[in-house]
Design goal:
- The chain is an alpha/beta fold and 545 residues long.
- The protein folds into three domains: 180 residues, 3-Layer(aba) Sandwich (Alpha-D-Glucose-1,6-Bisphosphate, Chain A, domain 3), CATH 3.40.120.10; 223 residues, Alpha-D-Glucose-1,6-Bisphosphate, subunit A, domain 3 (Alpha-D-Glucose-1,6-Bisphosphate, Chain A, domain 3, 3-Layer(aba) Sandwich); 134 residues, TATA-Binding Protein.
- Helix 10 packs parallel to helix 11.
- The longest helix is centred in the C-terminal third of the chain and has 18 residues.
- The radius of gyration is 23 Å and the shape is globular.
- Bound molecules: alpha-D-glucose-1-phosphate-6-vanadate and cobalt (II) ion.
- The site of cobalt (II) ion (CO) has 8 residues, from loops.
């Protein structure tokens, strides 16, 4: 055993309030002396029984990833963590981290990622803590970490020479062993257990072309392992497949704005039968067919309605959950299947207890997040394989599948409008204005309909009974149309305002409208009510989904 020298470093106060999903700040902020170290120390103080335990550490490969991992290893050694598991080159997607935590019975995992935010020296960096169930730490723990980071006077570190992370191996430092492992294997094995990859591969090789956009982020190597190595597809089915520190200047957020190259290939040029993209850390997914964009809320409904096509879910599912702003399309499926459907606040951490208690099997969010009980995170490649498996079984196109779905369940027209990085004063003004109008809205007309509910969403966890208040303002009309307004908890510049619109059309109505047209009255009337266009000085939102 090598002797290690532990030093205590005194630290200044830092602003480290975590948002929707961990601590997210500019890369430059994270480069400041002690900034990362303080947050890691605060995390470690919140973990009981850390000494001797196993911890997973990895990231999405953005600028600062390797350096941060090395520092965390040094702090682990000082804290006598038993085993630190690191993927080769430090690359581990968020769902793969979740899987490894569970498989290794680790105390938790630290994911270095700002997810869908841009990377590079001028981009963002972030730290997420996942707990022993594999899922994001709940609010009770993140609040505790924040409190601790506010009062920390020093942190412990051992300045050992950390090995390069580009080769497999096991190293010992004092009471800590550091294992550098294959970050792809556990995850790709899991996918092989859930899906019939041969069936998908046969289907794709017949005459159904696939293009997957890894956006120069973490999913590139996973996609190549699964699509090329295991399924035998051509190498060029993965685009932007090499992880880069700045994501090649891309914004690794799989939506129609930031993955527009892929969207053009499918929607304009119609060059492929199926297209998909994942975000920086591999937990989000966008699904496209030839000439057809799949809204993530519809995707969740389709996934839930077709569990019988996927080997891993053949025995049925116990229930489903969606975040509050996600459309009610999945609720319609749950009613038909006669299973419960839970409505949670935004953020994957709220699904953890429901999954652990087996109350649900599948869950999702409107923000391109879909997942199941196979891990405790949303899972981008899982969702892509899930869609491909349904298409292979049904032998149909994406647009046929979605249209048949609407014909059976009706269509929940849905759209999210994001006003990104606007001045916080403006965002707060709009938000507070709506809040003050809530009492007068109820019982009156909005968009030609009576307002049934006008409130700020509050959630009581069915398992631990914890209460989360102020999770988004909602206006629900008598015909169940909804308008929701939230301020993002993942942006790092100014404030991001998110507006969500939903209107149901039964299977007898016109199901082929453009959602912006179907939702026009709701969109216009909200703008009249709150003057969003004028106050933001933006003719259009930054992103429309
Ligand atoms: C956004 C999404 C939310 C998601 C969160 C983390 O949060 O709306 O649904 O859970 O990002 O996703 P917000 O507060 O900006 O609306 V990820 O891919 O960053 O882990
Ligand atoms: Co993400």
């Amino acid at each position: 055993m090598t002797e290690v020298n532990v030093i205590n470093i005194k630290v200044p106060f830092q602003d480290q309030k975590p948002g929707t999903s961990g601590l997210r700040k500019s890369t430059l902020r994270f480069q400041e002396e002690h900034y990362l170290e303080i947050f890691i120390e605060a995390i470690f103080k919140s973990l009981k029984d850390l000494q001797g335990s196993t911890l997973i550490v990895g990231g999405d490969g953005r600028y600062g990833n390797l350096e941060a991992i090395k520092k965390i290893i040094q702090i682990c050694v000082a804290h006598k963590v038993g085993k630190v598991i690191i993927p080769k080159n430090g690359l581990l997607s968020t769902p793969a981290t979740s899987n490894l935590i569970r498989k290794e019975e680790a105390i938790g995992g630290i994911i270095l990622s700002a997810s869908h935010n841009p990377g590079g020296i001028n981009g963002d960096f972030g730290v997420k803590l996942n707990i022993s169930n594999g899922g994001p730490a709940p609010e009770s723990i993140t609040n505790q970490i924040f409190q601790c980071s506010q009062s920390l006077k020093s942190y412990k570190i051992s300045k050992i020479k950390v090995p390069d992370l580009d080769k497999f191996g096991v190293f010992s430092f004092g009471l800590t062993s550091v294992e550098i492992i294959d970050g792809l294997k556990g995850y790709s094995d899991l996918m092989e257990n859930i899906f019939d990859l041969d069936q998908i591969s046969d289907f794709l090789k017949k005459d159904f072309s696939l293009i997957f956009d890894a956006m120069h982020a973490v999913t590139g190597p996973y996609a190549k392992k699964i699509f090329v190595e295991k399924m035998g597809l051509a190498n060029d089915c993965v685009m932007n497949g090499v992880p880069l520190e700045d994501f090649g200047g891309l914004h690794p957020d799989p939506n129609l704005t930031y993955a527009s190259n892929l969207a053009d290939l499918l929607l304009l040029q119609k060059s492929y039968s199926f297209g998909a993209a994942c975000d920086g850390d591999g937990d989000r997914n966008m699904i496209l067919g030839k000439g057809c964009f799949v809204n993530p809320s519809d995707s969740l409904a389709v996934v839930t309605a077709n569990t019988n096509c996927v080997p891993g879910y053949k025995d049925g599912i116990t229930g489903v959950a969606r975040s509050m702003p996600t459309s009610s399309a999945v609720d319609c499926v749950a009613t038909t299947l006669n299973i419960p459907c839970y409505e949670t606040p935004t953020g994957w951490k709220f699904f953890g207890n429901l999954l652990d208690s087996n109350l649900i099997t599948i869950c999702g969010e409107e923000s391109f997040g879909t997942g199941s009980s196979h891990v405790r995170e949303k899972d981008g490649l899982w969702a892509v394989l899930y869609w491909l498996q349904i298409l292979a079984v049904k032998n149909c196109s994406v647009s046929e599948l979605i249209q048949n779905h609407w014909r059976q369940y009706g269509r929940n027209y849905y759209s999210r409008h994001d006003y990104e990085a606007i001045p916080s004063t403006i965002a707060n003004e709009i938000f507070n204005n709506l809040t003050s109008k809530l009492p007068s809205l109820k019982g009156n007309k909005f968009a030609g309909n009576l307002v049934k509910v006008a409130d700020n969403f509050s959630y009581t966890d069915p398992v631990d009974k914890s209460i989360s208040k102020n999770q988004g303002v909602r206006i629900i009309l008598e015909d169940n149309s909804r308008v929701i307004l939230r301020l993002s908890g993942t942006g790092t510049k100014g404030s991001t305002l998110r507006l969500y619109f939903e209107k149901f059309a039964s299977s007898q109505e016109n199901l082929a409208l453009n959602p912006q047209v179907a939702l026009k009255t709701l969109i216009d009337d909200l703008d009249h009510l709150l003057n969003i266009t004028k106050l933001t000085k933006m003719e259009n939102p930054s992103v429309i989904t």
